[in-house]
UniProtKB/TrEMBL annotation:
This is CstA N-terminal domain-containing protein. It is found in: Cell membrane. PANTHER family: CARBON STARVATION, INNER MEMBRANE PEPTIDE TRANSPORTER. Belongs to the peptide transporter carbon starvation (CstA) (TC 2.A.114) family.
Length: 479
């Protein structure tokens, strides 16, 4: 119990203290014109108050991520608390803030353009493709999963439900951001926060046993904490998907002073939601073996429903429905909208005329609809890794940006180095990675190989980073 409460307090203190440090290092300019003021178009560049922008950003980056990911991550026990707290404060919130503010300074540019500007055109092209694939996958999964749940609840034909969701997605993708997203997202954002607060208070008052942090692996199958926990809990600690979402709000802020509240603050709030659900999952079922049993009979959605209805009654049931149906939909529509903006930025195609928006959106939805009829479970296994890899690349770009502007780049460099180890280690040892090439090799040996590979690649990237800085200094000296 104490570990859980201290973790909540740590996140709040992290926002107040480290968030302010990061903001100071970046260098806020209150008098600088924001994209919403100088490029106002009534479509994507629309001024919004910081409270509305915060709630939209929170829901954009959250959805079911900090719920389902935290529930799955709770299998490792209270080690999940440590990753959520430290990951959120020093990696995830830094990542979201820097990408959001870099985008704001670059007229709301997408993450691919920001990576290209700082890491080169080759990296830009890679990120354009990488981020669009990721966004379409997110959008498609959040078409089919809510449709399947609604089909089970209502009996309405799944194809009809998919069609309804797609029509909504298309509208949310092409209409001005303040027409649909700006109106309903703040409401859903508040509901998601209320849901988490209610569950958090409920498990404390009802006396559920929340284990304390200990140097122990609670996973029933003893799957290693590193790197699996760090990939399983993405939203709630650090997520590359956020880098595709932050530019949307970068186009809507009224002043740079709002950046810490909207970008850093939304990530800290997501961390709080993740902590609540991790604590609830590891305590409600009497321990991780019970949680594992529950997950094997219906997955995270069933776990969320059982906890919500038991702790909060009928209200909890309604909120659980919101969590497993409405929240995925609010991630899916912004995924397609972000894909449209990413493509438009990449080809320099103005998005003011609605015909131009449809010209990009329709092919995206054609691909998305086609994927709805394909069993892409194997592909989706790569999502978590792809998500964290995108965040890693974004952090490297942010470190380069800070250096280029004479700022302390270590706030981005250190998490970039760490995440490079994580994603490399994972893809080497995971079932969907290169583990097949180690047939017959002891698990401990494979895990050691993965860790060594991660450390080597991180060291190579770091040396390359400093080598680039050295070359730039030499060029400046000659100039």
């Amino acid at each position: 119990m104490y570990s859980f409460i201290i973790s909540i307090i740590a996140l709040i203190v992290g926002y107040i203290v480290y968030g302010k440090i990061v903001e100071k290092i970046f260098g806020i300019e209150p008098s600088r014109l924001t994209p919403s003021k100088k490029l106002s178009d009534g479509v994507d560049y629309v001024e919004m108050g910081w409270k509305k922008a915060f709630l939209i950003q929170f829901l954009n980056i959250a959805g079911t991520g900090p719920i389902f990911g935290a529930v799955a991550g709770a299998m490792w026990g209270p080690a999940a608390f440590l990753w959520i707290v430290f990951g959120c404060i020093f990696a995830g919130a830094v990542h979201d803030f820097l990408i959001g503010m870099m985008s704001l300074r670059k007229d709301g540019a997408s993450v691919a353009e920001l990576v290209g500007e700082n890491l080169g055109n080759g990296a830009r092209k890679l990120m354009v493709v990488f981020s669009i694939i990721l966004l379409v996958l997110v959008g498609v999964v959040f078409i089919t999963s809510p449709a399947a749940i609604l089909n089970d609840l209502t009996g309405i034909d799944k194809m009809v439900l998919i069609a309804i969701i797609i029509v909504y997605y298309l509208a949310a993708t092409v209409l001005p951001i303040d027409k649909i997203i700006g109106r309903i997202y703040p409401i859903f954002g508040i509901a998601l926060l209320v849901m988490a607060i209610g569950i958090g208070i409920g498990i404390v008052i009802e006396g559920y046993h929340i284990p304390e942090i200990a140097f122990e692996n609670y996973h029933p199958a003893h799957q290693s904490v590193f790197p699996y926990l760090f990939i399983t809990i993405a939203c709630g600690a650090i997520s590359g998907f956020h880098a595709t979402q932050s530019p949307m709000m970068a186009r809507c802020l009224q002043n740079e002073v709002e950046g810490r509240k909207v970008f850093y603050g939304a990530m800290i709030s997501e961390g709080v939601v993740a902590l609540v659900w991790a604590a609830a999952a590891m305590s409600f079922f009497g321990g991780t073996p019970g949680l594992g049993e529950a997950l094997s009979h219906g997955g995270a959605a069933v776990v969320v429903n059982r906890i919500s209805t038991s702790v909060l009654g009928k209200v909890g049931g309604a909120l659980a429905l919101l969590g497993v149906v409405a929240c995925p939909i609010t991630s899916g529509d912004t995924a397609f909208r972000s894909a449209r903006l990413t493509i438009a930025d990449a080809i320099g195609y103005k998005q003011g005329p609605i015909a131009n928006r449809f010209l990009i959106a329709i092919p995206l939805f054609v691909v998305g609809i086609a994927l709805c009829f394909i069993d892409f479970n194997i592909l989706w296994r790569y999502f978590s890794w792809s998500n964290q890899t995108l965040a890693t690349i974004a952090l490297w770009a942010a470190a380069k940006y800070l250096n280029n502007h004479g700022k302390n780049y270590f706030i981005a460099l250190l998490p970039a180095m760490f995440m490079t180890v994580v994603v490399t280690d994972y893809i080497v040892i995971a079932p969907e990675g290169f583990v097949r090439f180690f047939h017959g090799t002891p698990v401990a040996t494979i895990e050691m190989v993965g860790l060594v590979c991660g450390l080597i690649l991180s060291a190579v990237c770091t040396l390359g980073f400093f080598k680039t800085l050295k070359k730039e200094k030499i060029s400046e000296a000659h100039a």
